[in-house]
Amino acid sequence: MPGRGPGGGAFTDHLRITEGDGLNPRTYSLRDALCAPRLVRAFGAHDVLSAVIGSRAGFEAIWASGFGVSAAMGLPDLSLLGLSDQLTAASAMAAACQVPVLADVDGGFGGRLNVAHTVQMYERAGIAGICIEDKQFPKTNSFVPDRQRLLSADEFAARLEVAKRAQRHSDFVVVARTEALICDEKVEEALRRAHQYVDAGADAILVHSKSRRPDQITDFLKQWQKRAAVVAVPTTYYSWPVEEAWEAGVSMIIYANHGIRAAMRRIAEVADEIVRSGSSATVEPTIATMDEVFEATGLQGWLALDGDDR
Ligand code: SPV
Ligand code: MG
């Protein structure tokens, strides 16, 4: 039975087609999720606890956010962290979550062989897939104005070919992210690049936009004709309802940075309130209990492992 892409159309053969309508979180792969006849929502995580919270909330996937992992270490998203730091963070998320993790690897941490090494290290760590972007190293977060430098499409396509050759397991997913629109290129250039990247072996395309409305993405999708699964990141066009995104042809939506932004604001509010009021009494009912933290971190399981002879 052929799978059905977003908006009801059939995908071409870039992704394995799965049967059934549901997604069992214990068994589905990211590849299954991208083929499923429903939109996949990914929660951007900056650490293990935020990944666990996102998966428990019902997100079908976790985005190991380069921006989030950097910010959690007190660093801006400027390629300051390398493969080891990002891999450590993403693999810990994958180990703790029941849903697949798509890891943000920026440009792949260097040239073609660094991309190959990245693929193999992430695969070995049990991560479902990586997303590589077509920007020059060192990259700057997509929302920093006037600092965006695209990599040539030919060089990026060559990196994708190397990535797919380096991959050992057929289920591992390589998402090619084009930053053409972030770099003020036209939708036609994003499309040209996306076609070249799928020709090079990419399993799915992430087309990033800084527009306040989803117009560039819908324009892209109309012309794309569902050639491969498309991933969107509505950080700036955040009012786009998931139903409309699905109807327009999006397979996966990433809420990339909401966890770290929520945590930052809330921690600041709690810290300010304790300093202001002279005790933690007023914040106590508004924050997680110690038992909730014990539960989320699997305390009882760890104690059971230790036996009862203490
Ligand atoms: C990230 O979360 O690191 C991303 C998405 O790459 S964004 O910051 O929106 O570019
Ligand atoms: Mg990133």
UniProtKB/TrEMBL annotation:
GO molecular function: catalytic activity
InterPro entries for this protein: ICL/PEPM (IPR039556), Pyrv/PenolPyrv_kinase-like_dom (IPR015813), Pyrv_kinase-like_dom_sf (IPR040442)
Pfam families, alphabetized: PEP_mutase
Family: Belongs to the isocitrate lyase/PEP mutase superfamily. PEP mutase family.
UniProt protein name: Phosphoenolpyruvate phosphomutase
